[in-house]
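Case study 2.
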Amino acid sequence: MGRLRELGRAAVLAAGLLGMPGVAPAANLTAVLEAEIVTLDPHYIGAYITRTFGYMVFDTLFAPDGQFNYRPQMVASHSVSDDRLTWTFTLRDGLAFHDGSPVTATDVIASLRRWATRAALGGRLMAVTASLEARDARTFVLVLREPYGLVIETLGTMASPTPFIMPERIARTPGTERITEIIGSGPFVYSQADHRPGDRMLLRRNPRYVPREEPADFLAGGKRVLIDALDIRVVPDGGTAAAALQAGEIDYMQYAPFDLLPSLERNRRITVQNFTGPHMFTGHYRLNHAAPPFDDPAIRRVLLRLVDQGEVMAGFGLGERYARTCAAYFTCGGPNESTIGAEVLADPSVDAAREALRRTRYANEPIVLMVASDLEAAKVSTDILADRMRRAGFNVDAQVTDWATLLARRARREGWHIYGVHALNVDLGSPLTNSVINFNCQNSGNSGFMCFPEMTALFDRFARAPTAEARRAIAGEIQGIVYGQGVAVPWGQFAQPAAWRSTLRNMIPSAIPLFWNVEKP
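Prediction:
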């Protein structure tokens, strides 16, 4: 059956990809990413695909290396006063935007202020900022009202939206409006003339880009582009993209389909890149706290007894190499890993959940599960939850939709109760960037309209904590609230492997596709 499916997909390929006009030259690297890049404004939206685009076209002041140490990127040097209130930053020589204009301190300030209106982490920094001003063309000074423990981590965060730098005249665009001119200072140049929506996007090597001298190390170090252009193709079907990869028609695909991993791994012409730790995903069932009956924490907590992470991972067909159970809310292996409150996830049982549900006020109200049909992991995980909920006594109404429609429905306080989704551990590892909870008490559908003021106070303490140890302890307190209140339910930690032609050399192993440093013979 699997071989027949591959042959069928290859037939689709022959009629589609192979017939695409405009064959790329050998020095171009052809890639299929997780989705089409639709929104090009890297401040406007938190979509991962827009962040990927952002790292190609724009640049950041600081960036994490492979060990998640934050290193200077656009910044040449910085200093902080003894009272830790005044931070002075000097930009590197040779920084220029794609239109040839130099990158200046005023560009940086305008970009940071715009980004902070869209990113929770940036908003927190601005809330404790007394002033942010340019001293000269290459130097800017940040003065705080009080010490803040995450200045460098905030300026270098890879959490999406990410603090990419753009020209001041563009950064003056309100954060509520999308920018229409895409000019960065990053290693690749976007050209609207090379962009055919629904088909392809061509990002050309930036001849003006001056890399740092250090070797490339994840998002830090020298971003040396060794290809002429990155040719990004739009191929919605993963099987078609995998067939194209094996046929040599594309060089890279971001997400190898789970069911095709064995055949890709057997192909010596293909490299399958597994991911671990921060480059893995963690899935959650997110709950609508505004809609009965999940406004009742006792009913929410039933799901903590019900969900079997091992069953979800098995449903993906992934073995221990690609998946694991994880009870740490801020990810296993991350800097804020904790066991506080996690014992509630031990020994999941339909029978125990049924008995717990019987003791609540649940009165057989329909529970609307939104099932995203176009996200493999989200669909499989939610289908498994629907089955277990029915067996435990919930009246389940599973409604299949696409992801875009799900997001629109999520913004309403009624009409839905649960959906499954996953996010990268690099984003979930901190309370301030964890998308499940960081909009707490902000009337946001993203967090299920939950509001726990004690959690918001802990967020503030976390941001001001002077050491990693202090932040870890506070994260444990937050995790205790999350599990005590049944805020959301994690359903496992897993990798979505990338795959590329083995002729490519020096690919940076990253769940965010990075195309500097790579050579294509």
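The longest helix spans residues 468-485.
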